[in-house]
Every structure is written in C-alpha cells, then in structure tokens.
Amino acid sequence: MGAIAGKRVLVTGGAGFLGRAIVGQLEALDPAAIFVPRSAEYDLRERASIERMLDDARPELVVHAAAVVGGIGANAEHPGEFFYDNAIMGIQLVEACRVHAVPKLVTVGTICSYPKFTPVPFTEDHLWDGYPEETNAPYGLAKKMVMVQQQAYHQQYGMNAVFVMPANLYGPGDNFDPASAHVIPDLIRKFVAAHEAGAPYVELWGTGSPSRDFLYVDDAAEGVVLAADRYDDPAPVNLGTGVELTIRELAELIGSAVGYEGRLRWDSSKPDGQPRRAVDAHLAKLRFGFEARTSFEEGLGATVAWYLRERPF
Q: Quick one: 227 exposed, middle or buried, by C-beta within 10 A (0-12, 13-18, 19+)?
C-alpha cells in the first residue's frame, strides 16, 4: 500500500481541469476521503476561508492545484490579477498548512517560471538563470515565490512541501473559452469553426515559430499523484514529455485532425510568448517513476473528439 492509502486528502482546484484528473487518480489509491473545496464556499484568497477549509477537511495531504490561468491574451490583459490571486492563494495556504501541521503539501507550479531564454530541454537547475517571458512573468513568478516559501519552510520548520512544474497541459475537459483558453483548445475551436463555415483561411497569433512541450492532462495528474505518494523533497521537479512541437506544426496537426483544408494566416503583430519550451523530465522519472505515456496524436484525437461532442463554446 502506498503513502496515500487511508489518508484524508484535500485537493484545491479539484473541480478544475487538472484537479478533476488528480482526484480521479487519487481515488484509485484508496484514501480515507478526498475533500474538494468549491470557490463559492471557500475563497482561497481569504485566510479565514483557508483556515475553515482545513478545519473542515482535517487533511493529512494537501494537493494545491487551484490557479488563475489563461493563454497569452489573458495573461497580457490581467497581469495584476494573475499575480495577486496566485501568490496570495499559495502563500496563505502554505502558512495555514504549517499552522495546522499538515503532514504533506504538494503544489502544482508552472514551467512559465523558467527564464525566457532557457536552453531546451529545460532542466531544474536553470530555473534561476533569468527573468521569465514577459507576458507570463506575473503568473510564473507568483508560483515561483510559493516554491521559495515552501523551501524556506522546509529549512526552518521541517515542512514536507513538494513543488512540481507541469509543461503545457491539454486534454478533454480543457477550457475552450475564447477569452482565456490556452493554445490547443483555442486552435481546435477556431479550426472547427472555419471547417464548418468553409472559411478560406484561419488567422492565428504570432509567427508560428515558438515551440511547446504539450503534456496530456491524465499524464500530468499521474505525475502529481506519484509525487504525492513517493517524493519528499523541496527541490522542484519538471513534468513533461520532452517533445518539442512548434505552434505552426501544432496548427497543421489540428487542422488535419478536424478536416480543415484552408490556409493559415499568421498575425505577427500579436505576441509569440516564450520562444521555446520543452522540459527534461529525467528527475521525475528517477525520483518517483513518472514518465508521460500518451502520444500527442492520441491525446489530440481524444481532445478534438471531446470538443466535437460537448461543444462548450
């Protein structure tokens, strides 16, 4: 039996995209209970709500997956909100977990914390080599400060706090809202609409040259749960595939997946974001046995099928 069996587990953001997948994988490990707080009842930006949540759940493990996130456009429009909400949630939660003597905390960070020009593939020892890409910096730095806090609490109080950094997530159930979607759901929605309308072209942001490492949501959830079960170290750990895919290649794959045969028109006046992203996940494999198992073709097919079935936007 693993370390999670028989334990009371609290998952912030457990009703969200990644959180739902984490909860599903935790259930297979036979915990005593899984507590999923809802924002209408527990506002994690308020210390009193966090205290009440911990009193109600009495967790032996906390997985902090709640976050205010979005694509390049949302990051550019709401930098203050993204910084404040993510920083205040994390900082107050870590302190409350210390006060309540929670035995273990796992925080889901982001590879947006890496410097803008990090050599590919990203390794954890490059995390402090420069400033993050400007459009993602408020969000990435807010998460990074929570990591610093956890390491300080480990040093001073012996707190068992783990920090994992997933690559760009995608999968069924993703956020397809045009105002805040990340690149894969945004492109799926655009290409499906263009295909059904018979549009001669699809206009896309940037130049298409940046690259990303896309991690299927179920694989990411498995990595988080493996870290919760097997990893007890404050050193941050990447979760990713190591496969680097350009946005242009991504657009062509999505167009093909939905049957669109028109042209791509790139609007270079729009930001590209970080030039390159792909992570080295060797440490995660070495320390707790994580390895992404879903090929991009398989994951993309499942995501497109879900969108065509559900049509959330």
A: buried
